[in-house]
TrEMBL record:
Keywords: Hydrolase, Signal. SUPFAM superfamilies: SGNH hydrolase. The lineage of its organism: Bacteria, Pseudomonadati, Bacteroidota, Bacteroidia, Bacteroidales. It comes from Bacteroides cellulosilyticus. Residues 1-20 form the signal peptide. Residues 107-306 form the Sialate O-acetylesterase domain. This is Sialate O-acetylesterase. One of its GO terms (biological process) is carbohydrate metabolic process. PANTHER family: SIALATE O-ACETYLESTERASE. It comes from the Bacteria. Gene3D superfamilies: Immunoglobulins (2.60.40.10), SGNH hydrolase (3.40.50.1110). GO terms for molecular function: sialate O-acetylesterase activity.
Length: 479
């Protein structure tokens, strides 16, 4: 009897080993995928060591690309992609054949973050996305493909997931990230190439969950959990778990850049936010091996966080401080840019309905900074310095495409303070000859600091003439 049991154990182990050696292509590759154009696009997977792997494509049918499964049971082959086009077929052959159909070549972007990125085109329950019906109905005419990576937290880096690329259509696009969709649509309309969006986002997630272990170890107050086989679809704020479960399986897939919308869940530790994002981006780029791949992100929109302030009593205007931290990311992250959303926020709705503006503004950054298009306002004007002339504070701005405007409205969101650090509502106007804002107050004879829209919930009133709002800012560093 004992011998029979031993034989059964041996057979079971043999079957498991054989299964582990089964030839497989990574899950990010499927029918309907979009491959990044004009690069050596990595394909990878698993198999029995020593197995020869061959890849052929219908865009270059006379050429084969070969590799061998290494001693660890993995393989990787780089396949040059042509200029944008399709549909194509990609065939991967080893001890069995896998044919990927309806493959397009174009521009591929990773979309990540928390609930404002994951918010689908149809909206959340009782929380709409403006323009969603028109976008859904017109989606079949667009050459846009997307894949939604399953929300999964893991305590060690994973290799696999269950999802496939789809060609956008009215039947499926309601589940596409709204920001990602409008971003892709903006690129597709202006570049006339297929666009692929990889949506790896998770509502309620904090920045620490998206950082890998190496990034977390740069901070004494971010504990790295021990490695384990535990996974969960319900955990979004434990360090490393979303990187492990949702980003690691994608690492290596050819992308042009990253768009990011996150920050609401980190208002409880504002001082560490900017360096944490910078560490995350650095390690993502290092893992992908694509150098300083573009990182364009959305600043959080104004929202009334009063009910959250018991977490952050030292910062009653916590949203303004977080927006400031996001501005600081620009100086810490090379090849990054920020879409300002000061005009789209809603006082009691943390998921603003105007997602098209978010996608369009991220798209403008990409068109200008990544694809080199010129002749339009791509970035919001940004505060650069304050000068004092008598009782006047003169505010200067960088990134002015064609000057500043308030669209004829009085500027009412400026405050000014003297040495006593007491801020008063200020009188402010745009000096159209110099492209500055002049700020005064009868109660402040010697200005020391100016703040603009530095509140939880505000509506933007200062814009570039292209319609992009100026971010809230302060000239002081007072606590």
């Amino acid at each position: 009897m004992k011998k029979v049991l031993l034989n059964l154990v041996f057979l079971f182990a043999l079957v498991c080993f054989a299964g582990a050696q089964e030839f497989k292509v990574a899950d990010i590759f499927s029918d309907n995928m979009v491959l990044q154009q004009k690069i050596n696009n990595p394909f990878w997977g698993w198999g029995k060591p020593g197995t020869k792997v061959t890849i052929s494509t219908s865009w270059n049918p006379d050429k084969e690309y070969t590799g061998v499964v290494n001693s660890k049971g993995t393989w990787k082959i780089a396949v040059p992609t042509p200029a944008a086009g399709g549909p194509y077929e990609v065939t991967v052959t080893a001890n069995k054949k896998k044919v990927f159909q309806n493959v397009f070549v174009g521009e591929v972007w990773l979309a990540s973050g928390q609930s404002n990125m994951s918010m689908p085109l149809k909206g959340y329950y009782c929380q709409p996305v403006l323009g969603s019906t028109e976008a859904i109905l017109s989606s079949a005419k667009k050459q846009i493909h997307f894949i939604n990576i399953p929300t999964l937290a893991a305590y060690k880096p994973l290799e696999h997931f269950e999802a496939e690329w789809v060609k956008a259509s009215p039947e499926n696009v309601a589940e596409c990230t709204a920001v990602g969709w409008f971003f892709a649509d903006f690129l597709q309309r202006n570049m006339d190439v297929p666009v692929g969006i990889i949506n790896a986002s998770y509502g309620g997630s904090n920045i620490e969950a998206w950082m890998n272990a190496e990034a977390c170890k740069q901070f004494d107050d971010i504990p790295v959990p021990p490695l384990s086989n535990e996974t969960s679809p319900w955990i979004s704020n434990v360090p490393t778990v979303l990187y492990n479960g949702m980003i690691h399986p994608l690492v290596g897939y050819g992308i042009k850049g990253i768009i990011w919308y996150q920050g609401e869940s980190n208002i409880f530790n504002v001082p560490r936010y900017a360096p944490s994002v910078a560490a995350m981006v650095s390690k993502w780029r290092e893992a992908w091996g694509l150098g300083e791949v573009p990182f364009y992100y959305a600043q959080i929109a104004p929202y009334d966080y009063k009910e959250w302030n018991f977490f952050t009593p030292q910062w009653p205007e916590v949203s303004a401080y977080q927006r400031e931290a996001q501005r600081q990311c620009l100086t810490l992250i090379p090849n990054s840019a920020m879409a300002v959303l000061l005009d789209v926020g809603e006082r009691y709705l943390i998921h603003p309905r105007r997602k098209k503006e978010v996608g369009d503004r991220l798209g403008m950054l990409a068109l200008s900074k990544t694809y080199g298009m010129k002749g339009f306002e791509a970035e919001s004007p940004t505060f650069s310095k304050m000068e004092v002339e008598g009782n006047k504070a003169i505010i200067h701005f960088d990134n002015q495409f064609n000057g500043l405007t308030s669209y004829g409205k009085t500027l009412e969101q400026f405050e000014i303070s003297g040495d006593n650090k007491v801020f008063h509502k200020a009188d402010a106007y745009i000096d159209e000859e110099k492209g500055t804002v002049v700020v005064t107050c009868k109660y402040v004879a010697e200005p020391k600091a100016v703040r603009y829209a530095f509140k939880d919930f505000v509506k933007a009133e200062l814009f570039g003439t292209g319609g992009l709002p100026v971010s809230s800012f302060r000239t002081d560093d007072w606590d």
